[in-house]
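To: structure subgroup
Subject: Chain for Friday's discussion

All,

I'm putting the inputs and outputs inline so they're searchable in the archive.
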Amino acid sequence: MIKVNLLPTRKKKKQKPVPTFLIYTILLTIVTGLVIAYLAYFYSSRLSDREAKVRENDRKIAELKEKIKAVEDFERLNKTFQQRKDIIEELGRNKSMPVKILDEISAQLPVGVWLTAMDVKGSDINLGCTAFSNTDVVNYVNNLKNSKLFTEVYLQESIQSKTKEASVYTFRLTFKVKS
């Protein structure tokens, strides 16, 4: 016996194959997305490493600046101490010079002349003196000019004045100590 099915049968449609360009496009998009994700991760990690390195270098720079400041302070103190040492050594070498100057000034002082003021600035000396006569003034100036210790002896002024009993000459001298 033969059976006939009058009901329409559904035929299964054959699925069309997915176009290859679509497959390649999807694969290319996935690969590109993965490459971009990897590059973003790679460069962000490099950026964070460099930022960490910059912070470390800034910290080292701050430490080195403190050390440089300490060295500069030490050099400044060392320079100050060296200057003080040089001054002390100079004073030690020249400690006998004021004694020699005073000794020479008093040795050249003739009778009838006395000192009233003395000012020493470096090698320059200013004297204020009083004498009984103008001859005594001239003798003292000549004595200082003939001295081996003094140079450039100059009589600045000589003023005659009267006191209660006699007239006196007040005069000022400038000269230099030979080096």
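Points worth raising on Friday:
The first strand starts at residue 113 and ends at 121.
Helices lie at 20-94, 97-107, 134-145.

D.
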